[in-house]
Write a structure and sequence with these properties.
- The protein is built from nine helices and 15 strands.
- The strands form four sheets. An eight-stranded antiparallel sheet has the order 1-2-6-7-10-13-14-15. A three-stranded antiparallel sheet has the order 3-5-4, with helices on one face. Strands 8-9 form a two-stranded antiparallel ribbon.
- β4 and β5 form a beta hairpin.
- By secondary structure, it is an alpha+beta fold.
- Bound molecules: adenosine-5'-diphosphate and magnesium ion.
- The site of magnesium ion has 7 residues, from β10 and α8.
């Protein structure tokens, strides 16, 4: 009898501790997960732990959903299926993928082709982890397949075809930005008012950090542990493209993951490009485009784009700013 009572008391104490341990108060809830080949980091102000956990899961599930849809490394992804079939027939795809590809070609037109998702026609031959790059002959053979003009759209049926079987697309320069925009929209819908969502170099911000701005850093391209610039930001988004994310060196040359659609090779005029603007999808694509365009053309492009700003670090480590930041 005594033992039963003791057990009962023990288990009630245990339950009480559990309940107290379960945050019933508003707080910051933080989540990190490896998805889309990068670290997804989120910080969310929520009313209680349950809401905080739910919000973190919402963000991570959205990232995973887009990864399954758009990863070139997953053979069943819609993107891989499109790449495998679109030279033979018009392929029917989801409106989400169709719209993002259409948007990408629109950005190609506005960036003199510097942003071009068909870079992958050559780009698929690079493997940065294994230090593999295409030969000059391979590049020459495939370079003509790099052009967004090779993508044909059938608007009503949401079907896409490619001009020939050398054409491939890759959304690595825009999909993470799209995912961040989606995640922020989902958090807003569930009533969250303060949040940060980062996917690799792409960050989206919902509101402020409760009375203070978010402080978002631009990493020093040559020192992982240093920030080159820190910006106070509220209710906006920011993306950085750098030559340090995926690269290898060979014979003193740096081969990295941002390719010029004109040469099929990586570009070296700048080390990093940061775009600040309201839509993460655009920030992501624009940061890649400006990286390819270089300082002068890149700053001109951003100066013509209302609501968007740029900070460039060139290969001499000098910083350049678009007109609204150049105070
Ligand atoms: P990340 O955030 O992954 O560092 P970036 O925004 O810097 O990405 O974009 C680099 C990625 O964009 C590359 O890994 C590749 O998938 C894709 N990419 C590379 N060159 C181009 C280009 N000229 N146009 C469009 N996408 C590109
Ligand atoms: Mg980008």
């Amino acid at each position: 009898m005594n033992r039963v009572v003791k057990r009962l008391i023990e288990s009630s104490i245990f339950l009480l501790v559990c309940t107290l341990g379960f945050h019933a108060k508003a707080d910051w809830y933080v989540g990190d997960r490896g998805i889309m080949g990068t670290n997804i980091h989120t910080e969310i102000w929520a009313d209680n732990q349950q809401q905080g956990q739910q919000a973190i899961e919402l963000v991570m599930n959205e990232m995973e959903r887009i990864n399954q849809l758009m990863s070139p490394y997953i053979p069943q992804s819609e993107l891989s299926q499109l790449n495998a079939r679109a030279a033979k027939e018009a392929v029917s795809i989801s409106s989400e993928l169709y719209d993002l590809i259409k948007l990408s070609t629109g950005i190609s037109e506005e960036t003199e082709g510097a942003f071009d998702i068909t870079f992958a026609s050559v780009g698929f031959l690079y493997n940065y982890r294994e230090q593999i790059k295409p030969s000059t002959q391979q590049i020459d053979n495939l370079l003509a397949a790099v052009s967004y003009r090779h993508i044909q759209f059938e608007k009503d049926s949401k079907r896409i075809s490619f001009a020939n079987d050398k054409v491939k697309i890759d959304l690595g320069g825009i999909a993470k930005g799209h995912a961040v925009d989606n995640a922020i929209a989902l958090l807003r819908q569930m009533g969250i008012e303060h949040a940060l969502v980062t996917a690799g170099g792409d960050t989206g911000l919902l509101g402020d950090r409760r009375g203070r701005p978010w402080m978002v850093g631009i990493r020093d391209p040559r020192n992982r542990d240093r920030q080159a610039v820190v910006l106070p930001l509220v209710d906006t988004a920011m993306s950085t493209s750098g030559d340090y994310e995926r690269f290898f060196e060979d014979n003193g040359e740096r081969y990295h993951h941002i390719l010029s659609p004109k040469s099929g090779k990586s570009v070296s005029e700048v080390q990093s490009v940061t775009i600040v603007g309201p839509r993460s999808t655009f920030n992501d694509a624009l940061s890649t485009a400006v990286f390819v365009l270089g300082v002068k053309k890149g700053i001109n492009l951003v100066n013509r784009t209302p609501g968007y700003d740029v900070i460039i670090m060139d290969n001499q480590r000098k910083l350049h700013y678009s007109k609204d930041l150049d105070l």
